[in-house]
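Researcher: Please predict.
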Amino acid sequence: MNPYTEYARLETRRHFFGRGRHVLGTAALSTLLGERLKAWAQEGAPAPNLLPHFAPKAKRVIYLHMVGGPSQMDLWDYKPKMAEWYDKDLPDSIRQGQRLTTMTSGQSRFPIAPSKYKFSQAGSNGLWMNTELMPYTARVVDDLCVIKSMHTEAINHEPAICFMQTGNMNTGRPCIGSWVSYGLGSLNQNLPTFVVLVAEPTNKEQIQAISARLWSSGFLPGEHAGVSFRSGGEPILFINNPAGITPDLRRYQLDGLRQLNELNFQQLGDPETQTRIQQYEMAFRMQSSVPELTQVSKEPESTYELYGESARKPGSFGYSALLARRLVERGVRFVQVYLNNWDHHGNVAGRLPSQCKDVDQPIYGLIQDLKSRGMFDDTLIIWGGEFGRTIYSQGGLTKDNYGRDHHPRCFTMWMAGGGAKGGVVYGETDDFSYNIVENPVHVRDFHATILHLLGIKHDRFGYKYQGLDMRLTGVEEANVVKSLLA
């Protein structure tokens, strides 16, 4: 008798399943991973990060970026003592020789401009905020985790917004949405993992230039780049078949292209060829999913009572906030919404009310809408800009109007849902909202905290590129701010 045959004959069912449990687990894992496992198995594909590292609080992200840098002392950072300093010069002891932009470095003096807006306490914890311009946001302030001590090194828009979105002031790096797409993958095979919406502000007095490099995948595979939906007309150019082309004919064409691309990949081994194949297939699937997604007009009247009438207008921030909810509801992992014209070098009195009106009710509506659908607790909402504004006025100063220059030393951002601790204020600035005096939070710390909420350890999440282990948080120290976690 062969001893191995005898062992197999005498083996009990319990021993068999115990011996095979790892095989069964591997089979189950391969089913769950699906297309990601197939992609990893391709020749030349990078080794996967085994993510998430631990159970995440957030499954998806809606990032609302206010391009230009909102004025923290006019919205969130209440400084009542500044009323006594109206038109007095900013003390040198406060400025401490800080580098200034060329827009104010030539000023003969730096007169203090107290906020002209009404602040009052909101929420169960009495958070001070601008309730005059943001009455709807005040209703949900108990859901917000307000960080008043954000800071950055960048003093001009391009490096600052690049730093906030990619973790580096130089262009060419993957943005945070691409990192999340690469690490966690898709929740819906018929829509992109990462979608970008560029909303149109009501006031267009000073629009900052933004470009697709802000949602680039950088050195990550191209499939992880953000897919930009247009604010008007077709959401995605050429998504529909031209006249005379039926879905069956389009399928036949794509099958032929796939065969040609696979031959090319076998000869050259370029991983971007596989990306091209996958993007063609995604575009084909989106031909059926995108039209239904963008039929916002079919939303009930109760939706517009939440978000406001602006949500009916394609391209508005209200419309973008509503579309963001529809996107995450259908499995889009990361939605980035940009709203321009927060660069308040002048005419704060004329522009800030318009900007706040654009976002105030839609933000309230988005939070309430996600709650009603049971999605708020695992959807992380982020709001903020790339830096703050100066307490001193740029240009002429009156009690009714003023301007503010860029200020990287302190600014305010907030998070809501997705494991962020609601109803708290973290960090503090001096009486001039100029320097941080308590609990500073650097951009790298902020990124590390976002990744943590998604179940990712930032220092173990990277991509090998040009011989280096590249990370969103870079090589300098970055810490998860645990006080921001629920």
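Model: The longest strand covers residues 144-151.
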